[in-house]
Write a structure and sequence with these properties.
The protein is of the alpha/beta class. The chain is built from nine helices and ten strands. The longest helix has 18 residues.
Length: 398
């Protein structure tokens, strides 16, 4: 039930420290007309076909159809929190608070409300967990766009053009990891609820259960796969990868995200309000002015920059060596496209803004790009054994 899934995200949100500046919440959702939507999806397909390097930035809106609520939508986690705060404030001003709550702090009132929600979930027989959530059509489509090509008129795979080169996610739900998407083509900015990491050798462990800590804290387990020589263990104390409000973004994934967006001819923003910085501002690198304003014309954009394998010896986003500056050709930039039901701070400069549910857009886009109707035939019900095997393969390949 959706209520149980709400508790799933709320449980994660409850772990975060108190933070008042959550941005605008509860903005109205708008929908394009049927005719306008059809025209826009055709335009998007043309842009993706023209682009030789496309990057996608994903937010909570791509996971709502999996039953995981967003944060700033009409029924989002932060929206509902703000509504509760306003209601409590009005009650206090009118002197209408219940006698038992009158001396309680706001935090205590919220804790009582959360406990009540959890008890109702238990009474309904729910067992909310990110573990049972499955990738949405959008997750599955994105993995296809990265890993496969559509077939041509002769029913042969067109190997000349991949429509998507890299995905950057702000989500912590781990749904991208339940698809065939390679980790090397995924940058995770805010952490993953299934991942813990060794801070010494940088080995990542993908678990089939939720990591219970937050804020890059020790999980109580130790590294068994990393070390030198390969196959030995450094015995480092593993930490979670989930960021709290004021934690710094993971250096390797953040550097990789900037480099990928600078290389991109087109950036597609899916289901994100673009209100969390600095991630939200990445879309501007899809425009020539944003690219130049960021100084990206002086960055080293080689393929090794910001490698996601945890090796800090790899080159990162750095300025080119000083000396005579050669005349650089201006990069091809098609801008950025936003697919989101609510307005964002970056709408005005977007090449295209689509107001529709992301799954609806992606389903029709796949058809426009030439994928057969059976492209979504893979079973993504990742079980415990498969998930653990995926972890083993990943580390053996590093």
């Amino acid at each position: 039930p959706l209520h149980n899934c709400n508790q799933m995200s709320a449980g994660y949100a409850e772990r975060l420290k108190e933070y008042p500046n959550k941005g605008k919440c509860g903005l109205p959702e708008n929908y394009d007309t049927s005719r306008s939507l059809s025209s826009k999806i055709s335009t998007l397909a043309q842009l993706m076909t023209e682009s030789s390097y496309t990057v996608v930035l994903t937010g909570a809106g791509i996971s709502t159809s999996a039953g995981i609520p967003d944060f700033r939508g009409p029924n989002g986690i932060w929206t509902r929190e703000q509504q509760r705060l306003k209601l409590l404030s009005k009650k206090r001003k009118r002197g209408a608070a219940a006698e038992g709550d009158r001396d309680d702090s706001l935090e205590q009132l919220q804790q009582k409300n959360d406990r009540g929600n959890k008890q109702r979930s238990v009474n309904q027989g729910g067992s909310p967990s990110f573990v049972t959530a499955k990738p949405t059509l959008t997750h599955r489509a994105l993995a296809q766009l990265v890993t496969t090509n559509p077939k041509n008129n002769d029913n042969r795979t067109n190997s000349n053009h991949h429509h998507l080169q890299h995905i950057i996610t702000q989500n912590i739900d781990g749904l991208h990891g339940k698809t065939p998407l390679p980790r090397s083509q995924l940058s995770i900015l805010h952490g993953d609820i299934f991942t813990e990491k060794c801070p010494l050798c940088h080995t990542e462990y993908i678990r089939n259960y939720e990591i219970s800590t937050i804020g890059l804290q020790p999980t109580g387990r130790h590294c068994t796969l990393g070390g030198d020589p390969p196959g030995s263990s450094c015995h480092g104390a593993l930490i979670d990868t989930l960021l709290d409000w004021e934690d710094a973004l993971p250096e390797v994934d953040w550097e990789k995200s900037q480099v990928e967006c600078a290389k991109a001819e087109l950036i597609l923003c899916l289901g994100t309000s673009l209100r969390i910085e600095p991630a939200g501002g990445l879309c501007q690198l899809g425009t020539l002015s944003g690219y130049l304003d960021a100084g990206a014309d002086e960055w080293d954009l080689n393929d090794d920059a910001g490698s996601s394998d945890g090796d800090d010896t790899k080159k990162k986003k750095t300025k080119k060596k000083k000396g005579r500056k050669r005349q650089q050709p201006q990069p091809k930039k098609l801008g950025y496209v936003i697919v989101n039901l609510q307005e964002t701070p970056y709408d005005d400069n977007a090449t295209l803004v689509i107001r529709a549910k992301v799954d609806d857009v992606m389903e029709r886009l796949m058809s426009k790009l030439g994928y057969d109707s059976d492209w979504d035939s893979i079973d993504y019900n990742v079980g415990e054994e498969e998930h653990e095997q995926g972890q083993k393969d990943k580390h053996e390949g590093e």
